[in-house]
């Protein structure tokens, strides 16, 4: 009996290390996100009841359903949907808990999010990784935001969508450059000769284009521009809601930037450099 207990503990520890224990509970938390002079009330999917500025990445196996519990700590109803899967969606009432199954999906990267107005504009949107099993995995959840629209929605007002959309912040996992270097999920740190997958989701309100320096990456999956699967490129366009899985092979040492190819998206509140820039750091 004691051996069995030891064995099960060991198996669980191994599972955690291999990143195969699927996250099975999500909390919808509200909190504040600070950027330059702006403080924005935001919503996030977190792995605990404690607010974190980044939405947690979910990970599951290919072609098998994922049991998921979502606890909504917010005072508004939200939902859980997956971009492109119109027949799937689950509502979660305020201060309530809902358990459901995410349908089986093929290998790849998908956007999960809440499609209500507050969910969309206040950032309830994350990365769902399916069937990825490389030891080194990173994810980039791209977002753009306009604080005036967020303030209007979080205070219960009207969406100011008659005003032109002029986003002021462009983030990767809710980090803007230079703080992207602090993000262990997004800052790609590898040893020479290693490989990794990078799961990218566009949670923003515009298309984004990323440019890699130093590396050409291979499309392993994409949810929208599927003719690109297998292409090896240094420039990766992502349409709104698109999920892309890239393979990066660390075949040279050094520190290389990855940046949005749209100049406004590499600024913070109009100041360059900022926004969607992160780094690939390959050490000997
Ligand atoms: Cu470039």
Write up what this structure looks like.
This protein has 2 domains: 2-133, Immunoglobulin-like, CATH 2.60.40.420; 169-283, Cupredoxins -  blue copper proteins (Immunoglobulin-like), CATH 2.60.40. The chain has 284 residues and is mainly beta. It has 3 helices and 20 strands. Strand 1 (25-35) and strand 2 (38-46) form a beta hairpin. It binds copper (II) ion. Copper (II) ion binds next to loops.
Keywords for this entry:
11% helix, six-stranded mixed sheet, Immunoglobulin-like, 284 residues, binds copper (II) ion, 2 domains
Q: Summarize this, please?
A:
The chain contains three helices and 20 strands. It has 284 residues and is mainly β.
Shape: globular
Radius of gyration: 19 Å
> How much strand?
35-45%
Instruction: Give me the CATH superfamily of the largest domain.
Output: Cupredoxins -  blue copper proteins
The assigned structural class equals mainly beta
Helix content: 10-25%
Order of helices and strands: HEEEEEEEEHEEHEEEEEEEEEE
Please give the count of helices: 3
SSE map:
Layout: H1 2-17, E1 25-35, E2 38-46, E3 58-60, E4 66-72, E5 78-82, E6 89-92, E7 96-102, E8 108-113, H2 117-122, E9 125-130, E10 137-145, H3 147-154, E11 169-172, E12 188-191, E13 195-202, E14 208-212, E15 217-222, E16 232-233, E17 235-238, E18 243-249, E19 254-260, E20 277-283
Parallel strand pairs: 1-4, 3-9, 10-13, 12-20
Antiparallel strand pairs: 1-2, 4-7, 5-6, 5-8, 8-9, 10-11, 13-18, 14-17, 14-19, 15-16, 15-18, 19-20
The structure holds copper (II) ion.
Copper (II) ion binds at residues 211, 213, 259.
């Amino acid at each position: 009996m004691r051996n069995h207990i030891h064995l099960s503990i060991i198996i669980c520890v191994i599972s955690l290390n291999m990143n195969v224990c699927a996250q099975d509970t999500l909390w919808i938390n509200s909190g504040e996100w600070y950027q330059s002079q702006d403080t924005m009330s935001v919503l996030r999917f977190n792995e605990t009841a404690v607010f974190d500025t980044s939405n947690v990445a979910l990970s599951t196996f290919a072609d098998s359903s994922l049991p998921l519990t979502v606890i909504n700590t917010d005072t508004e109803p939200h939902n859980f949907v997956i971009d492109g899967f119109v027949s799937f969606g689950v509502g979660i009432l305020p201060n309530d808990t809902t358990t459901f199954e995410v349908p089986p999906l093929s290998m790849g990267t998908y956007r999960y999010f809440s499609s209500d107005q507050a969910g969309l504009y206040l950032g309830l949107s994350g990365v769902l990784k399916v069937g990825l099993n490389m030891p080194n995995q990173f994810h980039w959840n791209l977002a753009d935001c306009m604080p005036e629209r967020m303030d209007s929605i979080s205070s219960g007002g009207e969406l100011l969508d008659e005003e032109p959309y002029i986003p002021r912040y462009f983030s990767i996992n809710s980090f803007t450059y230079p703080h992207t270097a602090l993000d262990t999920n997004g800052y790609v740190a590898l040893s020479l000769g290693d490989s990794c997958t990078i799961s990218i989701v566009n949670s923003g309100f515009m298309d984004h284009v990323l440019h890699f320096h130093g590396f050409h990456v291979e499309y392993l999956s994409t949810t929208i521009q599927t003719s690109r699967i297998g292409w090896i490129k240094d420039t990766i366009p992502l349409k709104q809601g698109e999920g892309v899985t890239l393979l990066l092979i660390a075949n040279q040492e050094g520190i290389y930037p990855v940046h949005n190819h749209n100049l406004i998206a590499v600024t913070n509140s109009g100041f360059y450099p900022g926004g969607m820039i992160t780094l690939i750091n390959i050490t000997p």
